[in-house]
Write a structure and sequence with these properties.
This protein is α/β, with parallel strands linked by helices. Helices cover about 45% and strands about 15% of the residues. Helix 12 (about 245-260) links the parallel strand 7 (about 240) and strand 8. The chain binds (3S,4R)-3-hydroxy-2-oxopiperidin-4-yl beta-D-xylopyranoside.
């Protein structure tokens, strides 16, 4: 009987420590009917990409963010070209507003992204730079940005989308000047600037088993074998309601990434609908959110689920994918959709921590 009581006490203590570690005691999470409360009960980060402009101007948007989520990602405000309009000019104000908002509401922040082939400024792409100049610029960029946010970022997407759709290293100013080694340089420079931040590789199309996820797996395995400071993998998870993922294959991929010792984040989850968004399509979307969240909850190292936006109103999908839209949990008027209730139900019901008593 004593052993049973001992194990029960240990289980209760570990659950309470986990919830404290997740900064769960905050005013917003006292509202028990929210995604945020359910997520923190599960011991998982659940969040959204945030846009600075409406955060400042749309009080209902800001309120929905702090009520429903415990982690945020600046959607564009930390990207190279956004932060650094000139070589010696960094403009942190928009990104700071998101990081400060998160901090004031006891939310964590994912930094996105230090090294990417897109959203680069003309001063960088229009000049012919030597490999040495490119390396100097990249190192000073990473260490200036990571240093600016030192201690305030839970995880950085250090390198984003380095593998192309043919499972090769993607051509970019970084690869063309420095070769594939730019990836390990980036992680080492980021770690020097903030040893506490978790450092992630982030990509799309590698969620389930397949050639691209195999290539990403092999790349990260090699980086870890070379003692490159990489802590986790971000699976963007831009999904379609017309083509649900193979959840068993995603689960198998999450498990093999766990076996590498990686923390796993779902970093840009959205489920695009071919418009118009009929009731049947919205239910199909809800089922995909439910099953994707279930898949992450089944793997203890899957510790964060971040949607690529909080509301359909500001989603990138209609801007970038003609004919598609309504990909998120809250509609254009910030009202919960069937997908919201499906996510809430799954976060509430999934049994995350299994305490194995003797
Ligand atoms: C997108 C943003 O949502 C858009 O606002 C921006 O114009 C382009 O980038 N993968 C990524 C994200 O890692 O940074 C991209 O975000 C979407 C694809």
């Amino acid at each position: 009987m004593t052993r049973l009581l001992h194990h029960a006490a240990v289980a209760i203590l570990s659950l309470s420590l986990t919830s404290i570690a997740l900064n769960s005691v905050v005013e917003e999470s006292s509202n028990t009917g929210t995604l945020r409360f359910a997520a923190q009960t599960q011991g998982i980060f659940f969040g959204a990409a945030v846009v600075a402009q409406p955060l400042k101007n749309d009080a209902r948007y800001a309120s929905a963010l702090s009520r429903e989520f415990n982690i945020v990602t600046p959607e564009d405000e930390m990207k190279f070209g956004f932060l650094r309009p000139k070589r010696n000019e960094f403009n942190f104000s928009a990104a700071d507003s998101i990081v400060n908002f998160a901090f004031s509401h006891s939310m964590q922040t994912r930094g996105h992204t230090l090294v990417w082939h897109q959203r680069l400024p003309q001063w960088l792409t229009e000049r012919h730079l030597s490999p040495f100049e490119v390396a100097v610029i990249l190192k000073e960029h990473i260490q200036t940005v990571v240093g600016h946010y030192r201690g305030r970022i839970y995880a950085w997407d250090v390198v984003n989308e380095a593998i192309d759709d043919n499972t090769k290293y993607r051509s970019s100013i970084w690869l063309d000047a420095l070769g594939p080694g730019y990836v390990s340089f980036a992680f080492r420079w980021a770690h020097e600037a903030d040893p506490q931040a978790k450092l992630f590789y982030n990509d799309y199309g590698g969620e389930a088993l397949g050639p691209k996820s195999d290539t990403i797996y092999d790349m990260i395995k090699t980086l870890k074998a070379r003692s490159v400071p990489i802590d986790g993998i971000g699976l963007q998870s831009h999904l379609s309601a017309d083509h649900p993922p193979n959840f068993a294959s995603v689960l198998a991929n999450l498990k093999r990434l766990t076996a590498l010792g990686l923390e796993i984040h779902i970093t840009e989850l959205d489920v695009a609908i071919t418009m118009p968004a009929t009731a049947e399509k919205l239910q199909r979307q809800a089922n995909i959110y439910r099953d994707y969240i279930k898949t992450c909850l089944a793997v203890p190292n899957c510790k964060a689920i971040v949607m690529w936006g909080a509301t359909d109103r500001y989603s990138w999908v209609p801007r970038f994918v003609p004919g598609k839209g309504a990909p998120l949990l809250l509609d254009d008027e910030l009202r919960p959709k069937p997908a919201y209730y499906a996510a809430l139900s799954e976060l509430r019901s999934g049994i995350r921590f299994t305490t194995t008593l003797p």
